[in-house]
Automatic annotation (TrEMBL):
InterPro entries: P-loop_NTPase. Keywords: Kinase, Transferase. It holds the Pfam family AAA_33. One of its GO terms (molecular function) is kinase activity. This is Putative kinase. Gene3D superfamilies: P-loop containing nucleotide triphosphate hydrolases (3.40.50.300).
Amino acid sequence: MGAYLPSEDDVSGHSRTLRPVSGPGCLVVVSGLPGSGKTTEAKRLQAERLGVRFCPDEWMTALGANLWDGDLRARVEGLQWAMALDVLRTGGTAIIEWGTWGRDERERLRAEAAAVGARTQLLFLDPPADVLWKRIEERGMEDPPMKHADVVAMHEFMQSQRPDQEECSAFDEVL
């Protein structure tokens, strides 16, 4: 079996992200359920800010892995976070699009980024459950496929994890 060579689509935008920067780095946490538009928004931010985007789904797909392999996802996110901290330490913009459904996870990322001197921003995406379901069905990436009831249950859970005023005020900016 030959070596994996990423396609132009896999790496588009990444080479232009390497540029001299000065000042503090910026962490953007893009939070939302599957189908909420995280990747679309993260790609927009990447282009606008010449940031480095960290999407575990893309890495796992490139590795031929199942997106629901929780152990592998945790390892991929760990590697991505180590790289994101390096980006922040050098003054760059790191865009995390892991879902970050829970407040505790968002707070951990915010606190660790602030500890290396980075500014922190939160983008919380919360479309209605029927919009999530339509997008998930259209893209067909989940294996096994998600059920409508699963999407509704995740959406209900996410409502209990919405950033409140206290959490929002901990970030330097809410987008």
